[in-house]
Design goal:
The complex is a heterodimer of chains A (about 450) and B (about 475). Chain A has about 450 residues and is α/β, with parallel strands linked by helices. Chain A contains 13 helices and 15 strands. Chain B has about 475 residues and is an alpha/beta fold. The chains are: A alpha/beta (about 450), B alpha/beta (about 475). At the A-B interface, helix 1, helix 2, helix 3, helix 4 and helix 5 of A face helix 2, helix 3, helix 4, helix 5 and helix 6 of B.
Chain lengths: ~450, ~475
């Protein structure tokens, strides 16, 4: 299968028009010693053979009936119409809509995406998307440094550990000094030279911060210091006060929860929003609404491109070109499918169900909830027998919660539990049962 | 068809019952009792719209949008080839789509990642790959950070990168993001890198290397590529290959053999994964043995016990994206490589170049072709000599009237009024001939009916839009 339609006769005709005798002549600029005979790969395969082979790979992955794992990638219900819309090949086989008149459909959809994100976050501007939550946070740090002309940023503990690592890498690239500290010690490290304070809420461990209190704390003393909030499961915005109401300057999130399958962690969606005054420094594409030059009809186009790399080259605010357009389309369809009523319901159910599980675990001897603040759909709990819990979950076809030691080795007996609307009562009961069974297994108890 | 479809926000708004979420089946508590009131939001301005209205709305929008499945998409440097449907089927298999990045029981996924890395090594000649980067520009950033780390580790200060003026705009922007300053090198009259200027620039001593795409954005293979990479290496620099234009080289020649140390690929160009209207893409980065320690984490390593994930590597540039890269895009590319195999990939390279030269030979009869020689995957025309002050933009907009997408315009910057055409291998001769017919007709119109170009497009859902006002008074949401 090579998806090429020429037969030998056609090729001969074309060669004749080009005025060369064989295809190899077209590679005459390439030094002879660089030309290879053939690639050492297997022969091509027919479609059914490929599908068989892929099913074989697939069978080596375990897909569980229900999940208690989140930690930056979430299982939420995806309405069927999401995949229906993004499967329209007018959308998914198109390029970046540079030719606006032939791309009005997608441009309008991106404009609607920017609108729905603005409405959800109450932030003044949203771009057309970034790669994911982690790179959005890193780009936000750079943006803050450009806006303030300062090269130190503070990151508060509780940001997703993989995001912290990404921010570290980007900051190193730009010679931005990154200081990581706890919320309690924030006052000790804040000073005039800080470009921004970055934090996550609900954070990696599930804690919800009172963002208004935090922003007042920072802004009262240092009004020019930017506040950057990130989030890994923005379904919580159906319930929680949005960043636009708590004086956040730049808000970024991983949008995978909005109608995008986990797919082993990618592609997701980088949601990037900011206050309007930072418009000219925001990275990534923006779609704007305008009118025809010689007419009165409204239309949509890519705008403010003078910020971007293809115009400004090394003076651009970011190097981003390809983004996650199709994922932003998924998010749009997801959010309008649910509407305000559905979003409230989703957020409420996530909150209620997680709260229910939290209480149930807390009532089992040996389990201890470690969160001191309110939580949304994730929380951390200390387990009397973590290996037992993981094993019992698997036995019951449940994807076990994250062992926090994956990132923080010192938290060896702690799991991060995630409960969403997809966790049925039955699966929750099984999970509680697994937790109880685990403590009955003395020989596995962790010392 | 008229655009004029109301925004989704102007629909619905009645309370619509939808059944996406099962009823809450546990005992709930009063929210206010378990969550402080000041953390709870009040209003949410997202309408409730019925499913059928949503489907009709977006179906209508899809009809006023052009994709590869609509017809030829001759965007230069974008490699808009056909996206095989089998790729989409595989990406949606639940054994992949429902796999969590932090779960175990992921052997199938790890095997795929490992095997496609090996395949990309074979295709490019490189020794190791990371699949983490989410896009081409992201791959460039990773490549440049590897260069930065390499010199940092050696304790050598080199903070400049050479980039030819024909380079993609992402090159200088990525170099800057990795903390480098840029030396721009002017191409010579053949569209190639002038060796004497290169040598002069390298002699300044603080140059970390060069970023190059070959064939370059003029569609020209730089005949002195071995000399270029030799000169850079002789002065202690590294050579970075921008793989945006790799398509015509598939199975023909390999970046490492040309002397490159680092290469990024665009799976959404060369390896048939859909562009999705601007993404998601995937931009794997390949390196030589010497640079493998600097690759981002995590890396998948083959051991006697099977595949393991390596998170600890003190020389690594660190992590550049959460989890495992854009897995479902990588998966599509894997399916593509399996489908084509060694011979199929070579045929891609051959036919991509055949199609481009065929189109170029026919179009240069009527349009100015500043660099007139055998091209590889693409070629660049210009609006020079078009009558009645007709510009490249006029031509592009008129192409839309004929129901095709336009080539890349005003890029590369080294050609004034550039029209950059890349047909790819998946266009049939018939499709190419039709495009030529339209281009010829437009050329005739430029002479005999220039107003048709000046007023173009007139057959599209909307006319030319006011970009100036859009930027002056941005309206970015409703």
């Amino acid at each position: 299968m090579d998806f090429i339609s020429h037969d030998e006769k056609t090729i001969a005709e074309m060669l004749k028009i080009i005025n060369v005798s064989e295809v190899d002549d077209l590679f005459q600029d390439i030094p002879k010693e660089l030309i290879i005979e053939s690639l050492n790969l297997s022969d091509g395969m027919s479609e059914p053979d490929v599908l068989d082979k892929m099913r074989e790979y697939g069978s080596k992955n375990n897909i569980y009936s229900h999940s208690f794992l989140g930690a930056g990638c979430y299982y939420h219900y995806i309405p069927s119409l999401v995949d229906f819309v993004i499967s329209r090949s007018e959308f998914y086989t198109s390029y970046t809509p540079y030719q606006a008149e032939a791309s009005q459909g997608y441009l309008q959809a991106i404009y609607e995406y920017q609108s729905v994100i603005s409405r959800l976050t109450e932030m003044e501007i949203a771009n057309a998307s970034m790669y994911d939550g982690s790179t959005s946070l890193a780009e936000a740090a750079i943006m803050a440094s450009i806006i303030t002309g300062k090269n130190q940023v503070i990151l508060l503990e509780g940001v997703h550990p993989e995001y912290i690592d990404v921010v570290k890498t980007y900051c190193w690239g730009q010679n931005i000094e990154l200081k990581i500290t706890s919320e309690d010690k924030l006052n000790d490290v804040l000073n005039e030279d800080i470009a921004a304070v970055m934090f996550q809420s609900p954070n990696f461990f599930g804690d919800i911060t009172d963002v208004l209190v935090m922003s007042n704390k920072v802004k009262d003393k240092y009004p020019n210091c930017l506040l950057i909030q990130c989030m890994t499961d923005p379904t919580c915005l159906g319930l929680l006060k949005p960043p636009g109401k708590t004086n956040v300057d730049i808000f970024v999130a991983e949008g995978q929860s909005f109608g995008i399958d986990p797919s082993f962690g990618g592609p997701g969606l980088g949601i990037f929003t900011a206050k309007k005054k930072y418009l000219r420094k925001i990275p990534g594409r923006l779609v704007g609404k305008t009118k025809e030059i010689n007419g009165n009809r409204e239309g949509f186009l890519l705008t403010l491109q003078a910020r971007e790399q293809h115009i400004r080259r090394e003076k651009a605010s970011s190097n981003i070109c390809t983004n996650q357009a199709l994922c932003s389309l998924s998010a749009l369809i997801y959010l309008v499918s649910l509407g305000k009523t559905g979003l409230r319901e989703i957020a409420t159910q996530n909150f209620q169900k997680a709260h229910y599980v939290k209480k149930a675990l807390a009532s089992i001897p040996g389990y201890k909830i470690l969160n001191k603040k309110p939580t949304y759909n994730e929380f951390i709990v200390m387990c009397p027998n973590i290996n037992g819990l993981i094993r019992e979950c698997k036995n019951m076809n449940l994807l076990p919660p994250l062992q926090v030691s994956t990132y923080y080795p010192e938290m060896s007996d702690v799991v991060l539990v995630c409960v969403t609307e997809l966790n049925s009562r039955k699966s929750i009961d099984k999970f509680i049962k697994a937790a109880k069974l685990a403590i009955n297994n003395e020989e596995e108890r962790v010392d | 068809m008229d655009a004029n479809e109301r925004l989704i926000f102007n629909k619905g708004n009645e309370l619509v019952q939808q059944n996406f979420i099962p009823k809450l089946d546990i005992k709930s508590e009063k929210i206010e009792e378990i969550l402080p009131k000041n953390l709870i939001r009040d209003e949410l301005r997202i309408p409730d719209v019925s499913e059928v209205e949503i489907v009709r709305h977006y179906l209508k929008l899809s009809k006023i949008n052009y994709g590869v499945d609509s017809g030829i998409y001759p965007l230069g440097s974008c490699t808009m080839k056909y996206n095989p449907k089998v790729n989409e089927i595989v990406a949606r298999m639940t054994s992949f789509s429902k796999l969590h990045p932090l779960q175990d029981g992921n052997e199938g996924a790890l095997e795929i990642l490992y095997e496609i890395s090996q395949m990309l090594c074979e295709i490019t000649g490189m020794d190791g790959f990371t699949l983490q980067p989410a896009a081409g520009a992201h791959g460039e950033l990773v490549g440049l950070l590897i260069i930065k780390k390499y010199f940092e580790t050696k304790g050598i200060v080199k903070n400049k990168i050479i980039i030819p003026d024909s380079a993609h705009g992402t090159n200088p922007a990525s170099a800057k993001m990795a903390g480098f300053s840029i030396i721009e090198l002017q191409s010579n009259e053949h569209g190639e890198v002038p060796l004497d200027h290169l040598e002069y620039a390298m002699k300044q001593g603080d140059v970390a290397g060069i970023m190059l795409t070959n064939p370059n954005t003029l569609g020209v293979f730089d005949r002195q590529i071995k000399d270029i990479t030799r000169i850079v290496h002789e002065h202690g620099g590294l050579c970075y290959y921008d793989g945006a234009n790799l398509n015509p080289m598939l199975g023909i020649c390999r970046p490492k053999d040309m002397g490159f140390d680092i290469v990024h690929l665009n799976l959404h160009k060369t390896f048939s994964t859909p562009h999705g209207g601007g993404g998601p893409g995937s931009g794997p980065v390949g390196v030589t043995n010497e640079l493998i320690p600097f690759l981002p984490i995590p890396c998948i390593v083959s051991t006697k016990k099977g595949l393991i994930c390596n998170y600890d590597n003190h020389e690594s540039i660190g992590r550049i994206k959460a989890f495992w890269g854009n897995f479902s895009i990588i998966l599509r590319a894997f399916v593509y490589i399996l489908s084509l195999g060694a011979d199929g990939l070579k045929r891609v390279g051959q036919i991509a170049v055949l199609n481009a030269n065929y189109l170029k030979t026919l179009l240069k009869k009527k349009y100015n072709l500043p660099y007139d020689r055998i091209c590889q995957h693409e070629f660049v025309l210009s609006d020079k000599y078009l009558p009645n002050d007709i510009t490249t933009e006029d031509v592009a907009k008129r192409i839309l009237d004929y129901g095709f997408y336009a080539p890349t315009i005003y890029f590369p910057l080294v050609v004034n009024g550039a029209l950059m055409v890349e047909p790819t291998e998946t266009e049939s001769k018939d499709s190419l001939d039709k495009f030529v017919e339209v281009m010829n007709q437009i050329c005739d119109e430029a002479l005999n009916a220039p107003e048709k170009l000046k007023n173009a497009p007139s057959n599209t859902p909307i006319g030319r839009l006011d970009a100036v006002n859009a930027a002056r008074k941005p309206i970015l949401h409703d």
